[in-house]
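Students often ask why inverse folding is considered easier than folding. One informal answer: many sequences map to the same fold, so there is more than one right answer. In these notes we will look at a single instance of the problem. The structure comes first.
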């Protein structure tokens, strides 16, 4: 096992040295055995590993630091940084180098009067949701462990303290580039861009303009990522620029959830009162965030008007790029071919009018459950179903492949809330473990999974989620 600290190659302005706080009475709540195997850290699921990951016995190879970055939070640019997260080090694995970070490990120079702690509930949510996206084949950071600290964290009420051990290909964000642009020099922006290329896109190193190529690669990753979110009804909840990674990984699972009834205006976050990050606005916000990213690269594109023209031209490609990835996902979900997209629009009209559940609708189509689809549905929905069946006639292999992209199970928000509440109040982990087990095989289509349809009493109830900060 080899540890590195390549982030320290960047100018000193990008980080602050800091040690994690030592947990009072740590204990493992969740341990990700499959991820630990990939990282060759299976032997850390013991007392020594617990001490290392809870701040009491740091590895000699680690050089802990807190990263500096900014972020447009609900449209307002703010100086941020790792207020409750500490990068322990970078681990070289057979699949590449990954960051190992503690989230909820105590105060840092960027805590802004916060305590740097986290409650058990938000850390469990991050673990559950990041694992769900991983097994849905969506790029994401992952959680190696959730550790209870034995301390009390005060928010609106007392909570059991905890931290999550997060694994990512890096923690470079659009907000990192904003920080370099606003607080540093063009040389600092260049150093950060060079580092990002080396870290994630070495194939563009010899491009005619490597920085334009960097932007294109990041834009592709983000367009593809958001298209996959949309395809499974995932709502991130807080798409601030500090929550958009340069690697294209989903990060920072705060008020996130999967949509129930199809509605473009669906919002789960308790603080998103204007619906800025609603389901239907996620593609648009992705483009807005990329505009903020390309602004930071202007000094590297060219002088004056030339740089602006290049940036605008590159950014203009986002809309068609996202549409390409989105249609690619949706065609697979319905076994459609190019040119048959009108069926999508007709289906969405029916789904919204009849308040149909996103996941259940596609699951029923996948198992060809005509009875469920037509139960109390409109003539329009019945007509659509007949038209779709006629269109896809003879495409048996493609229809079978629908099961590979339409999940039979997602961790519904009300189930995640129940699992967290039971764990927090009574240490009952039965539902939590069931959610994790089902999430690891979302396309299994077992009878046990199919039993987890959305209950009638949940179909008209709106749950809120909270960021936990």
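Output (designed amino acids):
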């Amino acid at each position: 096992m080899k540890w590195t600290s390549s982030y320290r190659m960047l100018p000193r302005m990008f980080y602050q040295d800091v040690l994690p706080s030592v947990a009072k009475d740590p204990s493992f709540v969740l341990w990700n055995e499959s991820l630990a195997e990939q990282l060759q850290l299976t032997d850390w699921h013991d007392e020594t590993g617990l001490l290392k990951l809870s701040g009491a016995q740091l590895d000699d190879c680690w050089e802990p630091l807190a990263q500096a970055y900014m972020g447009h939070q609900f449209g307002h640019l703010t100086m941020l940084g790792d207020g409750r997260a500490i990068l322990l080090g970078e681990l070289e694995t057979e699949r590449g180098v990954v960051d190992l970070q503690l989230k909820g490990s105590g105060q840092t120079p960027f805590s802004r009067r916060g305590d740097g702690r986290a409650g058990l509930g938000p850390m469990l949510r991050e673990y559950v949701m990041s694992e769900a996206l991983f097994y849905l084949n969506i790029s994401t950071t992952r959680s190696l462990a959730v550790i209870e600290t034995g301390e009390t964290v005060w928010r609106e009420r007392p909570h059991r303290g905890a931290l999550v051990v997060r694994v990512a290909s890096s923690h470079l964000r659009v907000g990192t580039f904003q920080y370099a642009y606003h607080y540093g020099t063009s040389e600092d922006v260049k150093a950060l861009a060079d580092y990002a290329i080396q870290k994630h896109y070495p194939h563009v190193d010899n491009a005619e303009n490597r920085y334009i190529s960097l932007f294109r690669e990041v834009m592709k990753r983000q367009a593809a990522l958001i298209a996959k979110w949309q395809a499974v009804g995932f709502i991130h909840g807080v798409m601030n620029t500090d929550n958009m990674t340069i690697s294209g990984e989903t990060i920072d699972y705060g008020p996130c959830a999967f949509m129930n009834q199809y509605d473009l205006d669906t919002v789960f976050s308790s603080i998103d009162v204007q619906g800025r990050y609603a389901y239907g606005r996620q593609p648009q916000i992705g483009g807005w965030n990329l505009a903020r990213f390309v602004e930071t690269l202007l000094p590297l594109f060219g002088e004056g008007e030339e740089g602006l023209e290049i940036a605008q031209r590159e950014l203009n490609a986002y809309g068609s790029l996202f549409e390409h990835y989105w249609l690619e996902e949706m065609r697979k979900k319905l076994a459609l071919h190019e040119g048959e997209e009108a069926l999508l629009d007709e289906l969405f009209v029916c789904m919204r009018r009849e308040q149909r559940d996103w996941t259940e609708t596609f699951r029923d189509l996948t198992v060809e459950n005509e009875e469920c689809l037509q139960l109390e549905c409109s003539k329009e929905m019945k007509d659509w179903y007949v038209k779709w069946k006629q269109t896809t006639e003879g495409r048996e292999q493609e229809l079978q492949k629908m099961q590979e992209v339409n999940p039979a199970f997602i961790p519904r928000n009300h189930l995640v809330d129940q699992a967290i509440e039971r764990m927090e109040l009574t240490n009952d982990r039965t539902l939590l473990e069931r959610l994790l087990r089902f999430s690891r095989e979302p396309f299994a289509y077992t009878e046990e999974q199919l039993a987890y349809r959305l209950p009638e009493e949940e179909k008209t109830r709106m749950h809120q989620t909270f960021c936990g900060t």
